[in-house]
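This follows on from our talk about sequence and fold. Please put the record directly below this note.
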Amino acid sequence: MDGVNVISRLEAGRLWVHQAPYTTSVLVPWQGDVQAWPVERVSALQASHFAQLLPMQPELVIFGSGERQQFISPTLYRALIERRIGIDTMDTAAACRTYNVLVNEGRKVVAALLLNPSSALAPHK
């Protein structure tokens, strides 16, 4: 689908949207620019991190919590709930797969993905 962001690859600490690599946590909207998400771990999440999603106007957010699924307090994503934006939590690998399925169905979805920089692979030389 033209103009739709697709996650093409995921490795430890590295993610590709189309051919562009990312090594930090990101917000991947179904359309538009991928944005840096300034959070490295679940314990550092604040409500403001989820408020950053509101201007994108998604119908659903897929939250990738890192290498393993970690649920978070609904108080962190209260702004999403108040606007009737769904949120689903899973590990980042599952979040990437789910996001791709949903964008291929034409859904207005944003993937909020935690990438752990401490597990990032060294760049190839």
Observations:
- Residues 88 and 99 are 11 Å apart (CA to CA).
